[in-house]
Write a structure and sequence with these properties.
By secondary structure, the protein is of the alpha/beta class. It has two domains: 112 residues, Urease, subunit C, domain 1, CATH 2.30.40.10; 310 residues, Metal-dependent hydrolases (TIM Barrel), CATH 3.20.20.140. The protein contains 14 helices and 19 strands. Strands 1, 2, 3, 4, 5, 16, 17, 18 and 19 form a nine-stranded mixed sheet that branches. An eight-stranded parallel sheet has the order 6-7-8-11-12-13-14-15. The chain has a two-stranded antiparallel sheet with strand order 9-10. Helix 10 crosses helix 11. It binds the ligand Nc1nc2[nH]c(O)nc2c(=O)[nH]1. The site of ligand LDV2AJBS has 8 residues, from loops.
Length: 480
């Protein structure tokens, strides 16, 4: 494949391997061929005579962002419905009373994925972990999108529900959990065999409280045997914290550790309610050291929890404890740059100091932190030999100016609006802010229609009182 040379970029966010951190290079070039970066720095000597030259004038070139926790087929339909919901009787968690009432049907699945994938690309994401319930068009749409994707089908041994809004009950079916894992493995095999070479599997027993210890351990062992990643939701709500302490006398993090499922290949989705979080009032203070010592990563997704007044305390504290943090969008919008902004602001709010976290540390988590969680030293960085997953940011966009510190301008002001071009594996998948591989406008209309269909089903799904969508989640204003 011929070389592409991005010539004379105003800024390049390059990886300094010696210092193990990103650095700014000014007026630099980035060249790539065969899906890998071949040159970073000044001088066009890297270019072969037939190289395709792309002007870097007025551009910042940065590594593609790595989103390690998302539910692409479930979340777009929730927009306008779950923004302000949370059970007063379940410590404001949305998971048990509200989330099960708004679900897309099979027809909605491809549209939800299409819309979410386009949003990700537009916000500079090049790698995503998609933890969804398996659906027919998953692989095809992921391939079409051009994203590098971790196909992570969720499975579990129990379904949770609440009949009164203050007790979470579990409907156990262990065989269904085992069968779910088998189906997940078959889909992972199919994804990994795909000729595009950008699909990898991840094993995801859905939640710590809905999976038997046997399923958690068996899935972890199988992930290790195959050399793939493993992730579960844990320490994500107070009802879950209380359920696990009631069942086992251990916190969620301690219990996972006791099962032997925490190691550098494991990702804990959320990891908020740890033993020394001010809301848990638990008697130990070991959870952060367990996470750090085992090498497990935390997928930090602040937006969805901020909506309900919940927060990880705090990003800087976890980082200083030596825990590897990656960032996930989890919910809508699938805007990784806005998620990064929330990471920074929330950490400072929780620690009550502007020094809780630097923008450089947030960017690290959104790139190499995520890549480390996935065991990938070839992602999240601009370095020779790394995959050519690159984002060109338009520094002439008025929201990027002043551009003294362009990553700050991007994270705190411009966000996706300044994302101009995205390459994945050296292939251009977004240009002038537009995704051409996916009809996301049509998909948006289809998700809208699907939400109307789902709204009609809300009373039958609300086990507490058969309430309508309007009763569960009133509109911002009365319609007159
Ligand atoms: N935050 C969470 N989002 C979810 N989506 C989904 O399908 N399951 C979950 C979950 O456990 N937590």
């Amino acid at each position: 494949m011929k070389t592409t040379l991005i010539k004379n970029a105003e800024f390049v966010v390059a990886w300094d391997d010696t210092r193990q951190q990103h650095v700014y290079m000014k007026n630099a070039d980035v060249a790539f061929a065969d899906g890998r970066i071949t040159h970073v720095g000044a001088g066009a000597q890297a270019a072969t005579p037939d190289a395709q030259i792309v002007s870097g004038s007025g551009m910042m070139v940065m590594p593609g962002l790595v989103d390690i926790h998302s539910h692409l087929v479930h979340e777009p339909i929730n927009k306008g419905y779950t923004d302000e919901t949370g059970s007063p009787g379940l410590y404001n968690s949305n998971l048990y009373e509200y989330m099960p009432t708004m679900e897309g049907d099979d027809e909605a699945a491809p549209a939800q994925l299409t819309l979410a994938a386009a949003e990700l690309l537009m916000s500079g994401v090049t790698t995503v972990v998609d933890m969804s319930v398996a659906h027919e068009h998953w692989i095809d749409i992921m391939v079409q999108s051009g994203l590098r994707a971790y196909i992570a089908p969720m499975f579990r041994s129990a379904r949770w529900y609440t009949r009164n809004g203050h007790v979470v009950e579990y409907d156990w079916n262990e065989k269904a959990g085992e069968a779910g894992m088998e189906r997940a493995l078959a889909l992972i095999d199919k994804a990994e065999a795909h000729e595009c070479g950008r699909l990898t599997g991840m094993l995801v027993p859905a939640q710590i409280d809905t999976c038997t210890p046997e399923l958690l351990k068996a899935s972890h062992q199988e992930a290790k045997r195959r050399g793939i990643g493993w992730q579960t939701h844990a320490a994500q709500s107070l009802p879950e914290f209380h359920e696990i302490t009631r069942r086992h006398g251990l916190t969620p993090v301690q219990w996972l550790h006791s099962l032997g499922v925490l190691d550098p290949g494991s990702i804990v989705g959320h990891g908020i309610f740890v033993d020394d979080h001010p809301n848990t009032h638990w008697g130990t203070a070991t959870d952060l050291s367990i996470l750090s010592e085992t090498g497990a990563s935390v997928a930090h997704c602040p937006t969805v929890f901020m909506r309900r007044g919940m927060a990880l305390r705090d990003f800087g504290r976890y980082r200083r404890a030596g825990i590897n943090l990656g960032i996930g969008t989890d919910t809508y919008p699938h805007n990784m740059i806005e998620e990064m902004r929330h990471v920074g602001y929330l950490a400072r709010l929780m620690a009550q100091t502007p020094r809780a976290v630097t923008t450089g540390e947030v960017f690290h988590a959104a790139t190499v932190g995520g890549a480390k969680a996935l065991g990938r030293e070839d992602l999240g960085r601009i370095a020779v030999g790394a995959r050519a997953d690159l984002v060109m940011v338009d520094m002439t966009h008025h929201l990027m100016r002043p551009s003294r510190d362009p990553v700050r301008s991007l994270v705190y002001a411009a966000a996706d609006r300044a994302v101009h071009t995205v390459y994945i594996d050296g292939r251009r998948v977004l240009h002038e802010g537009q995704v051409h591989s996916l009809d996301y406008r049509k998909a948006a209309e289809q998700v809208d229609e699907a939400q109307r269909r789902a709204e009609a089903l809300v009373p039958s799904r609300d086990l507490v009182a058969g309430r309508s969508a309007q009763q569960m989640s009133p509109l911002s204003f009365d319609v007159v």
